[in-house]
Structure formats: structure tokens, C-alpha cells
Amino acid sequence: MKLDKLIGERFKEKPADSVIESHGLMVRGGYIKNVANGLFSSFNIMRRIANKIETIIREEMDAIDGQEVLFPVVLPASLWEESGRYETVGRELLRFVDRNGSPMLLGMTHEEAAVHLVREYGQSYTKYPFMVYQLQTKFRDEARPRGGLIRVREFTMKDGYSFHTSHEDLEEYYERCHEAYEKIFARAGLPEVVSVASDSGMMGGKVAHEFMLLTAIGEDTIVTCSCCDFRANMEAAANIVLNESIEPLLPLQKIHTPGTVTIEEVCKHLKLPVEKSCKAVIYQKAVTQEYVVVFIRGDLEVNETKLRNHLKEEVYPATLEENSGLVAGYLGPHKTDKAIMLFDSSLRGINDLCCGANEEDYHFTGFQIDRDYGEVEYYDLAKAIPFGICPECGNSSLVILRGIEVGNIFQLGDKYTAAMDMRYTDENGDIKIPIMGCYGIGVGRLAASVCEARRDENGPIWPMAIAPWQVHICCLRADDDASKTYADELYENMLKNDIEAIYDDRIVSAGVMFSDADLLGVPLRVIVSPRNMEEAVCEITSRDKSIEMKVKLDEVIPTIKNLISQMLG
RNA sequence: CGGGGUGUGGCGCAGUUGGUAGCGUGCGUGCUUUGGGAGCAUGAGGCCGUGAGUUCGAGUCUCACCACUCCGACCA
Questions:
Q1: Three-state DSSP state, A138
Q2: Angstrom distances, CA of residue A537 to CA of A46, A498, A516
Q3: Model pTM greater than 0.95?
Q4: Which of A89, A326, A366, A547 is most buried, most CB within 10 Å of its CB?
């Protein structure tokens, strides 16, 4: 490919609406163009990257006995009625009618289609296990697309569905798939992607993992432990705690001996400067008689109407017994040793509850205490509490991180196969319901994640395995005959040697040429110029600047070949 | 779904008390340049988001709508 024939413009300035770097760089570099909210077209550069990622995914899925198939984007509503999801899934499922008035939908996930495809095939236990996967467009009418390709409404996804005759078999295969995913992310240049236990959400099933690229711009919150291997997303961590009633996870109880919470400590917990006085305003619910303690900056007032609306229950200022330890609206030292403060994340809209002037100054949160200061009832885990207690190792060592979810795997169980009447006959002649796993990777999101993690201020630094081209030939001074002649020849030779090269022979200044090359992020660069021609050399550099060498003209091709194979690992 | 913001050449922006639009960049052409986004000259390119209203007159004021966007909620 010659650069001056490459369709798509490169820009000096990033678009005004880009918030994260990968989005800005991919627009500036001519990778993608916004069409509408959450909808993008891809230029050739983007397609080349996506194609390479898809190839890696195919190879690893085939290696664990997957078979590529293809489901339709448009599905009849009747298929989703079989599983019950036509009714239960919200407006992110785009529903419409065809010319005959039949209700249809755009596939946002394909469990139903997968069961539909294989339920005749899978009538005998001898066929199991098996897995089908596809790489195809999904449409989800997201309420809020964001971050360029990180969260879009239409995207390409690899989704795979496995079918098994026992949970043991599913678990075994699930583990193989987990390993395949690790290989995929490592090959795509993100070996640091970690898997975390996750909640299965609308998918149903029990065990699930999300594969996360840890980054500050991530939209998912992950709970990890600095002492052991515990990793979970926020929802799963909450469930673990709720199910097991691990008392030490309550944040304030751990940080302090029960009954000794001070105003300073509350301020610290709420990340408020201590000098800004913090008060605890105490309400009591009319029906359940539970106390609700709202911590609020001292100079603000609680908006009681909003509090009522939020709790969906009448509240009134609490009348406290004298020895309750909650004195005069301030949370002072406790006198009852049974009292336990709870972070109540069910009050998550609480920033709306206060009234005052400066919106960003509102930091407070709610705690809920049961009436008797005895047995604890609470809504949720102590979310977003650094140094909370790890449910695995028990140390006060939880760390809260942000991440981008680049893939996920679920042990679905028989939710879909049972609902859709898929059956097989086992070796004893009994009729059984197969169980399923499902496995997804977002291709565009993965590409954007690599861009986010592998870049500098001038552009992306693509790993060799997914780079749009392997080598970028810059012919400085293409108006110089010797340089141009050699560069033309070099380009032809690369093509003959199956080296993927993009060739820039435009007559432009070096600055323009290098800036464009940086935006394309091709891992290896060969610089041909009059200055180099005098020495009978080319410069070979890597995009990440780890390689800078001068190579004799007749050694360029072998050197490049060698470097490519090294960089492919 | 709740709360903000913004809509003006391809991109980034300015536009004062209302008087039919300007800057940077990019694009075309010519000459000069050429190792990190060159210089001069010249040219093209705009229904100022849409629709009503106020006014002699609206990019500017009023109202409604639409689109995009940010924060939050939600999110196989």
C-alpha cells in the first residue's frame, strides 16, 4: 500500500468530543469515523487491525475444537420468546417489525440462535461436547455509548457457545477456554489482561469471568487483593459478601474498634478534609423503624424530599435515646459496643440528596444502622473501600482498580437449553438437557484497548501481531532520484518477500511524514533519504524507539525479516 | 432514565449593544523550501442544527424540537 493512496485523512488536532486518548488517536489517524451516536465506520487501517485480531481469535478457538459458524444479525422475536428474553431484556434490544408485520430483533447476543442451530444435531450424547462460534456484528441500543470504540452500539464480537452433558465437562472446557483467552490477549499484545470473577447478570448461570485490561479510563470497577489472588468485579464481590455474611468486610468496623468512630475518621473515610466539619444527620424510616444516617458536609443540609424519594419511604428526624452514642446530629464516640456503621451503597444516588451551592463539593454517603444496634442488616458490600477485608485471605488489603472488559466467559447451565427444549439421549436411554457455556470477545474494543495501553503522545504503538502493516517505508526527499529509485525497489522487494509494507513516497516535509507514520503506529520503520544514500545505508527504527540502527542497503530485507520474526515472538 | 454542555466551511474555534460572517488549520494552483506537522502568492469552500416567534432587520433575543456530547443510573 502506498500511503498517498490510503483512504482517510490524518488530522493534527484531535476531535473536540474525544475524551480518551485511543478515541482521539484513532480519529486523528484516520482509523474510524463517527456516523451517529455509538456508530462508527472503519477505514482500511482499522479493518487490517481487526482482521488480524480476528485471525488470532479464530486460531485459538479452532485450537480448542471450536467450529466457526454464522448466525443472522436479524432474528425473529419468536426465537427469543422461546427463552423468555424477548420480554425480560430492556430497550437495549432493538425490536422492529418486518414488512409482514412479524416482530423481529437485532441480535445483541446469540444464545437462542446457537441452541436453534444445534438442537437437532445434539440429540445423542455421542455428539458432545462441541462448541460453535462466530465473528459477527452485534447491535445493542446502549443508553450511553462512550469512549470511541470502547462502548458502541454496533460492534463485531466473537461469541462462542459450548454444549456439554455434565457440569464437570463444562468446567473442564471452561478452563480450556480460559487458557485460550489468555493466549488471545497475550498474542494481541496485552499479556497484562487479567480475569476476574464476575456476576452473570442477565445471562443467567453461576460461574463467570471477565477479562479486564486494568486502566484508569476503564468503566468497570474491580476489587483486587494486594496479598492474595482474589479478584472480582464489584457486583461479584458484593454477592460473595452477602452470601457468606463476612462481617469483617464492614469497613468501619475493621478500621476501628466498634464504638469508637470519630468525626475525623468519618471525614477520612469520606475523603473530606477534616477541617471541613462533617455531620451525621439521623433519620428514622417510618415503616421499618430503621435508622438512616446521612453524612454530610457541615455547611450543607439534607434535602429531605429527595431522601424520601430515594428511600421510597417516609422518613423523619430520629429521636435518639440518650445513651445511643449518636449525639446531637454528630457521630461522636459510640457508647454501645454493638453499634456497627455500614456503608450503604443502595444510597448511591445520594449526591442528589443535599442542597447547596457548589455541586462538586457534595461528598457524603449514607450509613444504615438497624434499630437494635444488634444484628446487622445491610444492602450491599462496602463498595469502593480501599484496604477493606479480603474475603479470601482476611487481610485488610483490598485494592480498587478500574478496567476495560475485553472479554468474558460464562458457565450458563441449562437456562437456554431447558427453555428452548433442547434434549439428548444419554447412554442409558434417558432424556437429558445439555448444559452450555458461552464466551465473548469484543474485537473493536480489544483494538481500542491495545491502542489505549500501547501508545505515546504521537500515536499508537501497535504490537507486530496486530499492526496494520509490519513495516513503514519513509522516503524522505522523494524528489531525489537516488532515494526514490532505491525506495521503490525496496518496496517491491518487501512485497516479494511477503513483508507487509506501507510506502510513503509523497513529496512532503520530514515532519509531516514522521507525524503520519507515528499516527499509523507501524512497529518498524525504514528511512530512505539522500543523506542515508550517501552512506549506502537505511535507517531502521522501531515505533517504540527501542531499535535505532543503520543497515547496509543489501541487508535491509534480511534484517527486517529477522526483526519481524523476533517481534512476533 | 436523571443532571449539565455544545451546535458557525473538512477539522479546531471567534463572532461585542441585533445591521446577511471571520481566524487558524486543512484543501486546489504556482514558485521557493525539505531529517519532526515549511514560506510567499493565489483560489475554492458556509441555509450559522431545524421550525416558529419578536423586529424594518436575527449567527446574536424568545419558545419548541432535533442532533451530538459529558457526568451519573443502567449495561449478554
A1: strand
A2: 32, 22, 23
A3: no
A4: A366
Let me know: does A420 contact A116? Beta carbons within 8 Å.
yes
Q: Please say whether the beta carbons of A49 and A447 come within 8 A.
A: yes
**Nearest partner of A405 among A99, A172, A170, A201, judged by Cα:** A201
Contacts (Cβ under 8 Å, ≥6 apart) of A473? A487, A490, A491, A494, A501, A502, A503, A504, A505, A525, A526, A528
- Provide the residue type at A559 as one letter: T
Which residue's CA is nearest to the C1' of nucleotide B38?
A509
Q: How many angstroms is C1' of B49 away from CA of A436?
A: 49
Question: For A506-561, how does the pLDDT look when each residue is reduced to its tens digit (9 = 90+)?
Answer: 999 999 999 999 999 999 999 999 999 999 999 999 999 999 999 999 999 999 99
C-alpha cell at A21: 486518548
Burial class (CB in 10 A: 0-12, 13-18, 19+), A402: middle
Specify whether the CB–CB gap between A220 and A404 falls below 8 A.
yes
CB < 7 A to strand B: residues 212-271, chain A: 219-220
Question: What is the tens place of the pLDDT at every residue in A85-140?
Answer: 998 888 899 999 999 999 999 999 999 999 999 999 999 999 999 999 999 999 99
The amino acid present at A421, given as its one-letter code, is D
Q: How much of chain A is in helix, strand and coil states, percent to nearest 5? A: 35, 30, 40
Query: Per-residue DSSP letters for A252-313?
Result: HHHHS-TT---HHHHHHHTT--TTS-EEEEEEEETTT--EEEEEEETT-EE-HHHHHHHHTS
* Mean pLDDT across A55-71: 98
- Walk me through the domains of chain A, giving residue ranges and CATH numbers: 46-223+401-451 (3.30.930.10), 253-369 (3.90.960), 469-567 (3.40.50.800)
**What secondary structure does DSSP assign to A48-103, as a single string?**
HHHHHHHHHHHHHHHHTTEEE----SEEEHHHHHHHTHHHHS-TTS-EEE-TT--E
Spanning CA of A352 to C1' of B36, the rounded length in angstroms is: 50
Residue A549: CB less than 7 A from any atom in strand B: no
